[in-house]
Amino acid sequence: MSSGKLSLKIIKEFPIIEKISFELLIEAYRKSVKNTQYDLDWEEDQFTNYLINFMRESKLNRIYPLDIVPQYPLLQNDLPIDSNYPKTLPIIDIRICNWKSENQKEYFFEAKNLSEKNWYKKSGAKVDASSSQRRYIKTGIENFRTGRYYNGSLIGYILEGEIVIIIDKLNGRLIKDETNVKLIEKVDYIKDFSYFYESLHSQESKELKIKHIFLKF
After folding, report:
1. Three-state DSSP class for 131?
2. Percent helix, strand, coil in the chain (nearest 5)?
C-alpha cells in the first residue's frame, strides 16, 4: 500500500497546517484499519476518538508539536463577547494546532458516517443510508458554507458500500440544492491517496472551496 504521505523535507520547508493535518489523518486511518479494533456499529465520535489515538502517536508530533483535540468549540471572533458562551458555540469534531509555533495555526475536521445502502447493526437497529447522506450535506457541507464551521474539511466515514457510488448519490442530492453548488469532484492533493475531493459553493458574494476526504472502514 502506498504511503500517501508528504515528504518530510517539504513539510520542513513549507509547514502548512492543512497538509500536515491531512497527512496526520491518513497515517492514522491506515494504522487504525490495520489495527482492526473498531466496530462498524460505532457512532461518528467513536471513530473520531479511535483515529485521534493514532494521530497523537504520529512521528509528526516529533517534527511539529501538535495539539489534537476532539469536540472543540469554535469561537466566533465577530460576535459580542457574551455570545462566545461555550454551551452555545458550534462544536467541531477534531482540532489540530501547531501550538508551540510562533505563528500558531489551527485546522479542523468535521466527520460524518456514510453508507451506500440501508443496513442493520448487530443490535438490529436500522441504519438509513439516505439519512446519512442528507446529514452529510445539511450539517456538514452547509455548516462550512454558511461559516458556522471554518478553516477545515469534511471527513466521510464509509461504513457500507462503495465510495464512488456514495459520492454519486451525494452529488445527486446537491444537484437539487439551491446553494449554487458545483459537484464533489476528485482532486490530487495528497500523493498516493485516491479518495480526496473538492466542491465549490457560493458563500454570500464569494465562492468557497470545501475539501472532502473519504475513509472506508
Report:
1. helix
2. 35, 30, 35
Q: How many CB atoms lie within 10 A of CB 147?
A: 13
> Cβ neighbours of residue 165 under 8 Å, at least 6 residues apart?
116
Q: What span, in angstroms and rounded, lies between the C-alpha atoms of 217 and 214? A: 10
Least confident among 63-77, 121-135, 141-155: 63-77
Please tell me the pTM assigned to this model.
Answer: 0.87
**pLDDT classification of 3: cutoffs 50, 70, 90:** very low
Rounded distance between C-alpha atoms, residue 50 and residue 58, angstroms: 14
Q: How many CA atoms lie within 13 A of 199 on its CB side?
A: 25
**What would the grid cell of residue 190 be?**
495528497
Q: What is the mean pLDDT of the chain?
A: 87
Instruction: Report the SS3 class of residue 195.
Output: coil
180 pLDDT tier (thresholds 50, 70, 90) = low
Q: Are the C-beta atoms of residues 101 and 127 closer than 8 Å to each other?
A: no
